[in-house]
Please model this.
Amino acid sequence: TLCLLAHTLKSSSVTLGARRLAALATQLEETCWTEHGEQAQGLIALIEGGHRDACAILLMELESSPKKAA
Model:
C-alpha cells in the first residue's frame, strides 16, 4: 500500500541522511493513515523532486570521495 511504501521511503531516506525526503515521506505516511488522499498527489510530486535532489547530492558525494585501491 501507499502507506507502507511511504514508511519504507522514510526509513531509507533517514539512513542515507536525506532529511528533506524523509520529512516528505513522513507527511505522506501520515496523510495515508488519516485518509486525506487529496493531499497525497501533491506530496508525491514533492517527493519526486526531493528524490531527484537527494540522488544528485549522493552522486556528487560519491564522485568527490577519494578512490580506494582494491
